[in-house]
Amino acid sequence: MASADHISPTDLKRRIEAGEHLQIFDVRTPSEFASGHVPGAANLPMDEVEARLDDLSTDRPAVLVCQSGQRAAMTCELIGASHPNVLVLEGGTDAWVQAGLPTVRSTKTRWSLDRQVRLGAGVLVLTGLILAKYAHPGWIFLTGFVGAGLTFSGLTNFCGMALLLSRMPWNQPKRLSSGPAASSSP
């Protein structure tokens, strides 16, 4: 498969300001999206892309965004030939922020998935150490398990804890009801 075409943050900003009708999709989890995203971006989590391919209009260029650009490039490969004009934001939202460009944040504060993973790993390690000291020495294996998981995550760029946490209810987008109140316009 061919590699994805990239667009720099400054080029994307210029094209947006020029009024070009781009579709911007952020493929991160809803909590990551809420913590800060490119203005005008819609949240299309990577694990929902195949089911929501109809959300991508083939008439307009689509720009895929994630934190660093890696998940967006993977999503671009996943979309394949179904969309002829897909770009990946080079460096993701990290590069967008480093370029001094504005982001939109949810008014409700949410922790990023990365922060949730760090907290979870820290709590598990601390719990394992305390229980090993005061309850039973076998609890030390909990800290070893977390350490092995973090090592595996670092080597493979796959984090099972992040996958598990992304499925938790607090990390799911709020669903609008399909009743008459939801379809009425102000």
Largest sheet: 5 strands, parallel
How is the largest sheet built, in terms of strand order?
Answer: 1-5-4-2-3
- How many domains, as an integer? 2
Order of helices and strands: EHEHEEHEHHHHH
Query: What's the mean pLDDT score?
Result: 86
Helix content: 40-55%
Strand content: 5-15%
Written description of the protein model:
With 186 residues, this protein is an alpha/beta fold. It has two domains: 5-98, Rhodanese-like domain (Oxidized Rhodanese, domain 1, 3-Layer(aba) Sandwich); 113-171. It contains eight helices and five strands, in the order βαβαββαβααααα. A five-stranded parallel β-sheet has the order 1-5-4-2-3. β2, α2 (30-34) and β3 (42-43) form a beta-alpha-beta unit.
Provide key terms for this protein:
alpha/beta, 186 residues, Oxidized Rhodanese, domain 1, 2 domains, 9% strand, 5 strands, disordered C terminus, 44% helix
